[in-house]
Structures are given as structure tokens and as C-alpha cells.
Task: structure prediction
Amino acid sequence: MIDALGVDLARLDLRARAAIEALAEEVIALREEADTLRASLADAALLADNDALCPVFNRRAFEREVRREIALSGRFQTPLTLIFIDLDNFKTVNDVYGHAAGDSVLLKVSDILLARTRETDIVGRLGGDEFGIVLAHASLEDSRRKAAQLAGAIDALEVRGEEGSSLPPVQIGASCGVVEWSAGQSPAALIARADQAMFAEKARRKGEGRTLR
Result:
């Protein structure tokens, strides 16, 4: 530190040398405090964006990213789609096995979504058992195929009690609504359309004889 200041301590008296050395130590300490503060701010920003349970964006951060992706899509005229996912029979899991089991299901679902999407895709938990995925540079057809893949993986999840348990197994499922952004559409309108598409898909699945709660 003293070398960086260009000070020749050998040419100073003891008092001046001690003062400069003390100043150098104080500057080093301030730098360390600044590094610690920057790290703390980065951690705080990460916590502010992350869902409280799952390793994905929370709703506030997800909506912010939707706005950003819409701006980019509008500027460069590239396709943008959104998948809205609502879990089937999640309430039954909570009612039969408790909220700890429900939390475990949410974590498994978030792992599935993260493992089966691109690093550039944006995954968020929108609340309760609802998730959203934003796919930039993806056509509606490609996104529908992706939604079907995700639903298939989630449909394979099942919650069971321990061996000998009298509790009935609960089959998890996913109803996915897929929509494409159109010019002039707001983030809120895009999410609302995807939500409506999800309800239509849930109704279709019920029509196939599935028991969904």
C-alpha cells in the first residue's frame, strides 16, 4: 500500500513514518469493509429476487424479467412465449400429507423446470403451486412442445406414505398454458392470457377423466 503511494519511508522521521503507516492500515481496513459490504449487497439482491422456498425467481422478480424480455423482443422483433404452470392435486398433498410434503413437491417441480429449460429461459414461482417460464427466441409451437415435456415429467411425480401407511398415494400433475407475446401487449396482460390458457388446459385434462384438485 505504501509503495503504491510512492512514499520513501526511509527519508521520513519516526513520527511521519508512523502516521503514514497508520493511514495505510486504515485504508486497507476500509477496502476490506467495502468488499464485505459489496458482497452483502449482492447477497441481499439475490435474496430479494429469489423465491422463499424454491431456487427460482419470486413473482416480483419474474414480472420484472418479463418486462425486460418484452422490451428486447419488441426492439429486435424476436418471438417471445410464456408458459403458465399450475400443479394438479397439490391441495390434496397438503391435506393428506401436510405442508412439508407439499414443500418437497414444489422443490422437485422447480428442479424439473430448471433441468429441462435453457439457461436463458426465466423460471419463477408465481405463488402457491403456480410457476411461470419465459422463453425468448422460441416459437409458440416449440414452447408448446416444451410445455408438454415439462407436464410429462411432473405427471410422473407421486407422493406416497411410508411402507405400511394407510394414506392413499397422490399423483401430481401439471396443467400448462402457453401463449405468445404480441406487440403492444403489457406484461400483466401476457401473464393473464397464459393463466387463462392454463385453465383451459386444466379443463381439457379434467375432460379426459383426470381427478384434479
Q: What stands out?
A: The beta strands are 80-88, 122-127, 130-136, 158-159, 170-171, 173-180. The chain is about 55% helix and 15% strand.
